[in-house]
Amino acid sequence: MKIQGSAFLWHQIRCMVAVLFMIGQGFESPNVIDLLLDTEMTPRKPQYIMAPEIPLVLQCCEFEGVRFICSIDAKQTLREHFEREYLSYKLQSAIFQEALLSVSSIENDNSVMKTRTKKKGTSHIPLLSRPTEPSYEERRARLDARIRTRE
Question: Could you count the other beta carbons within 10 Å of the beta carbon of residue 35?
Fold first, then answer.
């Protein structure tokens, strides 16, 4: 998914993706998007867990009238940093791959006791039936009250 905007709102994107995942998994109807965007009908955001941040990548930033200058040394240092990070993650990936392979061999081992307990699954609660966060107006009123008490 590629999103282009005039501001990068990290958590807002994660919330959007979480709702899209629920729709994609069949837990929510696509029309829930219109309902959530209608602030008259849904003045408060339902509580739900945001989508993971790992795959979220800020790819490009552009600013009108601003020209960034980067020295050759800074570029080289950045490249070296990325190479070290890449090698570290590649090593971790290889370690986990070996761990997965060893678990696969355990599954084929007859000496291992094969008892499995079922995990208790949680049922999906529709977004519009969930507890909600305070509305913008409620948050603003609470903030204004705190500011007035400090004065």
Answer: 14
Indicate the length of the chain as a whole number.
Answer: 151
Q: Give the per-residue SS3 of 102-141.
A: HHHHHHCCCCCCCCCCCCCCCCCCCHHHCCECCCHHHHHH
Task: Please report, for residues 4, 62, 69, 83, the alpha-carbon distance to residue 66 in angstroms, rounded to integers and kept in the order given.
Answer: 19, 8, 10, 29
Q: What are phi and psi of 132, to 5 degrees?
A: -120, 160
Q: For 95-139, write each residue's pLDDT tens digit.
A: 999 999 988 776 666 665 556 666 667 799 999 999 999 998 999
Collapsing DSSP to helix, strand or coil, 147 comes out as helix
Helix extents (H) in the chain: 10-24, 32-37, 72-107, 136-150
What is the sign of the dihedral through the CA atoms of 4, 31, 34 and 134?
negative
CA–chain centroid gap for 20, Å, is 12
Neighbours of 91 (CB within 10 A): 10
Sequence-distant (≥ 6) Cβ neighbours of residue 42 within 8 angstroms: 35, 36, 128
- Tell me, what's the pLDDT at 108? 66
